[in-house]
Structures are given as C-alpha cells and as structure tokens.
Design goal:
- The protein is mainly alpha-helical and 95 residues long.
- Strands 1-2 form a two-stranded antiparallel ribbon.
- α1 packs across α3.
- The longest helix has 13 residues.
- The radius of gyration is 19 Å and the shape is elongated.
Length: 95
C-alpha cells in the first residue's frame, strides 16, 4: 500500500495524500484543513488526526510543530434518553 493512501482521519476517511495536497495548496493551519476536508469533525473531534496533521504541516512548511495551533478537543458526546431528562425535571419540581 502506498504511503499516500494511509487514512489520517478515520472518522471522515481522509487520506495522507489529501492532507498533503491541501497543505501544498496553501491551507497551512489545522483550522483551514478542517474546513475544507472535515478532518476533526467526526466523533473523535480530532483526537486521533489533529497531531498527525500538525506534523504534516510542520514537515511541509518548515514551521516548528510547537508553533502550530492545535484545534480544541471537545469531550465525546452521546445520546440522552428522554426519561433521563424527565427524571431530572421531576426531581427539580418535587423540591
């Protein structure tokens, strides 16, 4: 398998080749790459791909990796049942 076909963002199925192409086209921040490729917008919120993309930006642009602004990593989200909401509302009403 070619190195270029390596999946960088598993949530959005983005390859190393796509990330490198975006950087070569002038998108040199994680935020810019996120906006055009949707990296970091899946369930992991960039926890797995953010540092990999920062490393690629650093290697291609020559910018030290410490100077590359990382995206904000948000906690995982999950569903909530209506009965959980109703139980909380019921608790507040009884008080």
């Amino acid at each position: 398998m070619s190195e270029e076909k390596i999946i960088i963002c598993r949530c959005e199925d983005i390859t190393l080749e796509e990330v490198r192409e975006a950087i070569k086209n002038g998108f040199t921040t994680i935020e810019e790459i996120k906006r055009i490729l949707r990296t970091g917008m899946g369930p992991c919120q960039g926890k797995s791909c953010g540092l990999l993309i920062a490393r690629e930006i650093s290697q291609i642009t020559g910018t030290p990796i410490e100077e590359i602004e990382l995206q904000n990593i948000r906690p995982p989200y999950g569903g909530i049942l209506f009965k959980e909401i109703l139980n909380n509302v019921g608790d507040k009403i009884e008080k």
